[in-house]
Amino acid sequence: MLGSREVLVEVTVNAAPHAARVPARTLLVHFLRDRLGLTGTHVGCDTTQCGACTVDLDGVAVKSCTVLAAQASGHEITTIEGLAPSGAAADLHPVQQAFWKEHGLQCGYCTPGMVMAVRQILADNPDPAEADVRRGLAGNICRCTGYQNIVAAALHAARRLREA
Length: 164
Fold this sequence. Notes:
The chain is α+β, with helices and mostly antiparallel strands. It folds into two domains: 6-82, Roll (Ubiquitin-like (UB roll)); 89-163, DNA polymerase, domain 1, CATH 1.10.150. The chain is built from six helices and five strands; from the N terminus they run ββαββαβαααα. The N and C termini lie far apart (55 Å).
Protein backbone atom coordinates (compact mmCIF):
# COMPACT_ATOMS: atom_id res chain seq x y z
CA MET A 1 0.00 0.00 0.00
CA LEU A 2 1.47 3.37 -1.05
CA GLY A 3 2.35 5.62 1.87
CA SER A 4 2.29 2.86 4.47
CA ARG A 5 6.01 2.10 4.22
CA GLU A 6 7.93 2.93 7.37
CA VAL A 7 11.50 4.16 7.60
CA LEU A 8 13.95 4.32 10.45
CA VAL A 9 14.84 7.89 11.36
CA GLU A 10 17.96 8.39 13.46
CA VAL A 11 18.70 11.98 14.38
CA THR A 12 20.43 14.02 17.03
CA VAL A 13 18.01 16.61 18.39
CA ASN A 14 19.22 19.21 20.85
CA ALA A 15 22.37 17.11 21.41
CA ALA A 16 20.41 13.92 22.25
CA PRO A 17 20.19 10.92 19.91
CA HIS A 18 16.75 9.69 18.86
CA ALA A 19 15.60 6.81 16.67
CA ALA A 20 12.10 5.87 15.60
CA ARG A 21 10.28 4.10 12.81
CA VAL A 22 7.82 6.44 11.11
CA PRO A 23 5.74 6.45 7.94
CA ALA A 24 7.97 7.52 5.05
CA ARG A 25 5.88 10.64 4.43
CA THR A 26 6.22 12.00 7.98
CA LEU A 27 7.29 15.62 7.98
CA LEU A 28 10.11 16.66 10.28
CA VAL A 29 7.81 19.08 12.12
CA HIS A 30 5.42 16.24 12.98
CA PHE A 31 8.29 13.96 13.99
CA LEU A 32 9.60 16.63 16.38
CA ARG A 33 6.20 17.44 17.84
CA ASP A 34 4.41 14.08 17.84
CA ARG A 35 7.25 11.59 18.33
CA LEU A 36 9.67 13.63 20.42
CA GLY A 37 7.22 15.92 22.21
CA LEU A 38 9.11 19.07 21.21
CA THR A 39 6.07 21.27 20.79
CA GLY A 40 7.98 24.56 20.65
CA THR A 41 8.29 23.96 16.92
CA HIS A 42 4.89 25.13 15.72
CA VAL A 43 2.77 24.10 12.75
CA GLY A 44 1.38 27.27 11.29
CA CYS A 45 0.55 26.54 7.68
CA ASP A 46 2.04 23.25 6.37
CA THR A 47 2.84 25.12 3.15
CA THR A 48 6.21 26.77 3.94
CA GLN A 49 4.58 30.20 4.12
CA CYS A 50 4.77 31.19 7.78
CA GLY A 51 8.09 29.95 9.20
CA ALA A 52 6.61 28.98 12.60
CA CYS A 53 8.25 25.55 12.18
CA THR A 54 11.80 26.85 11.62
CA VAL A 55 14.56 24.71 13.15
CA ASP A 56 18.28 24.32 12.53
CA LEU A 57 19.33 21.34 10.45
CA ASP A 58 23.10 20.91 10.62
CA GLY A 59 23.38 24.58 11.59
CA VAL A 60 21.17 25.96 8.83
CA ALA A 61 17.67 27.30 9.45
CA VAL A 62 15.02 25.28 7.58
CA LYS A 63 11.26 25.14 7.63
CA SER A 64 10.60 21.72 9.10
CA CYS A 65 7.24 21.43 7.31
CA THR A 66 9.17 21.10 4.04
CA VAL A 67 11.60 18.40 5.17
CA LEU A 68 10.72 14.74 5.52
CA ALA A 69 11.86 13.19 8.78
CA ALA A 70 13.64 10.55 6.67
CA GLN A 71 15.65 13.30 4.96
CA ALA A 72 16.86 14.49 8.35
CA SER A 73 18.07 11.04 9.36
CA GLY A 74 21.76 11.11 10.20
CA HIS A 75 21.72 14.85 10.82
CA GLU A 76 21.75 17.22 13.79
CA ILE A 77 18.69 19.31 14.58
CA THR A 78 18.34 22.17 17.02
CA THR A 79 14.88 23.29 18.05
CA ILE A 80 13.84 26.27 20.15
CA GLU A 81 14.00 23.97 23.21
CA GLY A 82 17.67 23.32 22.51
CA LEU A 83 18.62 26.98 22.87
CA ALA A 84 17.90 27.09 26.61
CA PRO A 85 17.58 23.48 27.79
CA SER A 86 16.97 24.42 31.44
CA GLY A 87 14.32 26.98 30.54
CA ALA A 88 15.84 29.39 33.06
CA ALA A 89 16.02 33.06 32.05
CA ALA A 90 19.76 33.07 32.76
CA ASP A 91 20.26 30.30 30.19
CA LEU A 92 18.37 31.96 27.33
CA HIS A 93 20.21 32.38 24.04
CA PRO A 94 21.07 36.05 23.36
CA VAL A 95 18.40 36.16 20.63
CA GLN A 96 15.80 34.88 23.10
CA GLN A 97 16.95 37.43 25.68
CA ALA A 98 16.65 40.19 23.08
CA PHE A 99 13.11 39.14 22.16
CA TRP A 100 12.21 39.32 25.85
CA LYS A 101 13.92 42.68 26.42
CA GLU A 102 12.53 44.31 23.26
CA HIS A 103 9.03 42.80 23.60
CA GLY A 104 9.46 41.03 20.26
CA LEU A 105 6.31 38.95 20.63
CA GLN A 106 2.63 39.22 21.35
CA CYS A 107 0.79 35.91 21.24
CA GLY A 108 4.12 34.06 20.88
CA TYR A 109 3.00 31.55 18.26
CA CYS A 110 5.51 32.69 15.64
CA THR A 111 8.25 33.46 18.16
CA PRO A 112 10.14 30.13 18.09
CA GLY A 113 10.41 30.30 14.30
CA MET A 114 11.34 33.98 14.43
CA VAL A 115 14.09 33.30 16.98
CA MET A 116 15.51 30.48 14.88
CA ALA A 117 15.36 32.66 11.73
CA VAL A 118 17.06 35.57 13.50
CA ARG A 119 19.84 33.24 14.63
CA GLN A 120 20.45 32.37 10.97
CA ILE A 121 20.31 36.02 9.89
CA LEU A 122 22.95 36.90 12.49
CA ALA A 123 25.10 33.90 11.62
CA ASP A 124 25.12 35.07 8.00
CA ASN A 125 25.56 38.76 8.85
CA PRO A 126 26.68 39.66 12.38
CA ASP A 127 26.13 43.39 11.78
CA PRO A 128 22.88 43.67 9.83
CA ALA A 129 21.04 46.86 9.00
CA GLU A 130 17.30 47.04 9.67
CA ALA A 131 16.62 46.34 5.99
CA ASP A 132 18.79 43.19 6.18
CA VAL A 133 16.77 41.89 9.13
CA ARG A 134 13.46 42.63 7.43
CA ARG A 135 14.62 40.89 4.25
CA GLY A 136 15.89 37.91 6.26
CA LEU A 137 12.52 37.59 8.02
CA ALA A 138 10.53 37.71 4.79
CA GLY A 139 9.82 33.98 5.08
CA ASN A 140 8.38 34.28 8.59
CA ILE A 141 4.92 35.65 9.24
CA CYS A 142 3.68 37.25 12.43
CA ARG A 143 -0.04 37.95 12.45
CA CYS A 144 0.00 39.99 15.68
CA THR A 145 2.77 42.58 15.45
CA GLY A 146 3.99 45.19 13.06
CA TYR A 147 7.43 43.53 13.19
CA GLN A 148 9.03 46.66 14.71
CA ASN A 149 9.83 44.98 18.02
CA ILE A 150 10.95 41.79 16.29
CA VAL A 151 13.40 43.80 14.18
CA ALA A 152 14.52 45.72 17.29
CA ALA A 153 15.12 42.40 19.05
CA ALA A 154 17.23 41.14 16.14
CA LEU A 155 19.34 44.30 16.12
CA HIS A 156 19.68 44.16 19.91
CA ALA A 157 20.84 40.54 19.71
CA ALA A 158 23.32 41.44 16.98
CA ARG A 159 24.86 44.12 19.21
CA ARG A 160 25.06 41.73 22.18
CA LEU A 161 26.62 38.95 20.13
CA ARG A 162 29.22 41.31 18.65
CA GLU A 163 30.14 42.54 22.14
CA ALA A 164 30.51 39.00 23.49
